[in-house]
Amino acid sequence: MAGYRLIDCESMDRAVEIAARFPDARHWGVEVRPVLGFGGAADEL
Q: What is the pTM for the complete model shown?
């Protein structure tokens, strides 16, 4: 594991678009998942 990035996006589709630009996405898997908000629920699932 090389690390992780936390990116605030408007939607899951936008997060996938951004993750696809990472150089590692060309050769290895990039995991995209929602993060729980302050209210305890994942935002816009």
A: 0.64
